[in-house]
Structures are given as structure tokens and as C-alpha cells.
Design brief:
It is a single chain. A three-stranded parallel beta sheet has the order 1-2-3. A two-stranded antiparallel sheet has the order 4-5. By secondary structure, the protein is an alpha/beta fold. The chain contains six helices and five strands, in the order αβααααβαβββ. The longest helix has 17 residues.
Length: 168
Amino acid sequence: MKKLKRKIENADAVVIGAGAGLSASAGFTYSGKRFEENFADFYPYDTLEEYWAYWSRYILINRYCNAPKSVYNDLYSLLRDKNYFVLTTNVDHCFPKEDFDKHRLFYTQGDYGLCQLRGSLCTNGNQRPLHLYQCRHWRSIDGNRCFQINKNFTVLKPAPCIYCFVLV
């Protein structure tokens, strides 16, 4: 690490290429204890409702919650005063959360925060689609029933929808 720090300090500019390994080193793992604690109640999912509730929680935890370890913060502290650019395949938004300049970032695979609902999914009475992680009320894919998920993204029993007026 000392050698890397010295190289960065002496560089005129730094280009970072970051993939899944960087986020994994920051604690974003998708198996084992972390997966069991956060997703075992959905996976394997039996219904489309459970599938979308799983993805809602997945995006909330893996994009909006901070990484368990300080890897991104540590990297930013090395680059803060340098001319840098980041090219990443990560969709977890860890770079901007640690104050990396958004004009110096290129996300080749997008950002989970840009996932939005459209089509047959309920919009909770809003005129425009919600971001996936915001949704608490869904219309089934076939459009014949609605269901709700609570703040922990647990699927509740289907109920009449006050927004789209679809009955169970």
C-alpha cells in the first residue's frame, strides 16, 4: 500500500479501472452471511411479487446503504487532490457516495438508482414511475391483483389497490 501511495503522490494524473472486486473488498458480497441476513426470506423466490420485492431490497441495500468497509473512502483520500478519472463497471454508486467528482466518473453498466418502474406496475398514485427501491405497492404482472411490501420489503397479502383500483 505504501508503494501505491507513493506512485499516486508522484503521478500527474491517475486513471482508475474498478470492477466488482473493489466493491467485494468493501464488503458488498452476494453470498454467505450477508446474503442470508438480507435476502434469505426471498430467495429462492416463488412468485413475481417476491422477485420484485427481492430486487427492491437488493437495490436499497446495495446502492443506497453505505459499504460495510472503508475501501472507497480510503481510495478517495489518496486521490482527493489529484487529477483523476474513474472508469467502473460497478452499479452500486460507491464512488459518488464518497465524494468522487461525478464529472470524473464513467459507469459503463449504469447505476441501480436509475432503475424505474413502468408498464403494469403500480405507481402509488404518482404521475410518473417510481424508482424501484421506493415502491411499496405493486400490481401483478397480469394486472389482475395488487400487493404491498412493508418497509422491510416483506411481501404482504394482496389487497385492493387504492391507486389503480384493481381488486384481489
